[in-house]
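Annex B. Sample input.
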Amino acid sequence: MATFRLTDRAARERAEQSLAPGAARSTAGRGRVRPEPEDPLRTAYERDRDRILHAKAFRRLKHKTQVFLHPDGDHFVTRLTHTLQVTQVARSLAAALGLNETLAEAIALGHDVGHSPFGHIGEEALDPYVPGGWHHAAQGVRIVERLEDLNLTWEVRDGVRAHSWKIDPPPTTREAECVRYADRIGYLSHDALDAVRAGVLAPGDLPARAREVFGEPGSQMVGAMIDAVVAGSLADGGRVVMAPGPLEAMHELRAFMFERVYGSEVAAGQKHVAVDVIRRLVEHYLAHPDQIPDSYRDAEADTMTQVVDHVTGMTDRYALTTHDRLFDADATNLMRPLLP
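Annex B, continued. Sample output.
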């Protein structure tokens, strides 16, 4: 008896035909900007997933802030660990709903590659330099389309574009809707754990209703939220949605987190330093565009775009060390929050 059985691209594409009617199938997508010969083993979405995993922008996520700036601790969530957790939740949702797990995985892995240093604080710092404001989702699309030119499928790029609930129009595929919920499930749960670890919250501080519906932060909360999205989506029949009761509890938890955690002294107490670091870097490179490295530069773009590309691509520590070198300052120590 043979030990193995070849499962090539054709076999995997046939397996996709058994997915739910609303699932995206790699053979029925809108394709790539530049047509390519098919891979003998992998589907189009599997190739996209692998390209994102090997991208430089993906690797840099390990040194980018999720919530807590420059934390003194090995267990705080980074933008990379957040991305991996979102990917797990997105795959769980897609699998339970009969959707294309690989497409959900590819979008989830790429959803935050456009993030600036210092998390959403960096986003705010960059707003004045971009008409209409700067957003990490749009920068993520720019990275995969232009700066690294991964030539991803339209469905993956659309999912990265609209993974945030702020973006309109919403994503086209149900798999991308899974990523939207997975992102929110991931950050509400693990950010709450980090807030307890940082002393911002006590274990019993979370809203009573959220604890009653979802349990404690961590695996219990993640599992309950996944169950609520699966139940809500099956009842709706057309969209990926959370059941109404749990959705209200999630909204309450999110409002609580913004009030007590994301705007807290510990999480954002050095916000002014982060904003100042980014804006000083932008102004420096606007005055000295010749100092932008050629290795990660769109020479056809205007100077402002090149500068924003360079600064937003920096990791937290690279932004701090570059700032300190250019301005003979010590933003690194100023940035360090008073964590236990």
